[in-house]
Design a protein that fits this description.
Strand content: under 5%
Helix content: 55-70%
Shape: globular
Order of helices and strands: HHHHHH
Distance between the termini: 48 Å
Number of strands: 0
Number of helices: 6
Length: about 120
């Protein structure tokens, strides 16, 4: 059986996941091209790391009032909700319900986002 080669853009997914978990507070949510691709790559085996990348993009969008990105942020929030059962243990990070509640508290007046997010 031929061994499948790792994606050359992401040669070490385990290392990437560890980096995300250890430096989550430093993630630049504005780097959505990189973070989006990384989140997709990490989804299957590292759902917490993928969730943290998506959360960074959501927070950057809402904190910056980037209404043109609301649709993407709403999709990321939905992806986080879908991944929550696979994550199971969020460690020291808020679980999905707590994260969504924090977002609602801080950004409750961003009606366009919440309408897209289905709330």
């Amino acid at each position: 059986m031929r061994r499948r080669r790792a994606d050359p853009a992401w040669p070490a997914p385990e290392r990437a996941a560890r980096l995300v978990l250890s430096r989550a507070a430093e993630l630049d949510g504005n780097a959505y091209d990189t973070l989006g691709a990384a989140a997709e790559m990490l989804d299957a085996k590292h759902p917490l790391a993928a969730t943290l990348l998506r959360r960074a993009m959501i927070e950057d969008t809402l904190d910056g009032g980037k209404s043109k990105r609301y649709r993407h942020a709403a999709r990321h929030l939905s992806d986080c909700a879908s991944a929550a059962p696979q994550v199971g243990d969020f460690g020291g990070f808020p679980d999905h319900a707590a994260f969504a509640a924090q977002l609602k508290k801080r950004h409750g007046r961003k009606y366009g986002f919440w309408q897209l997010a289905g709330d």
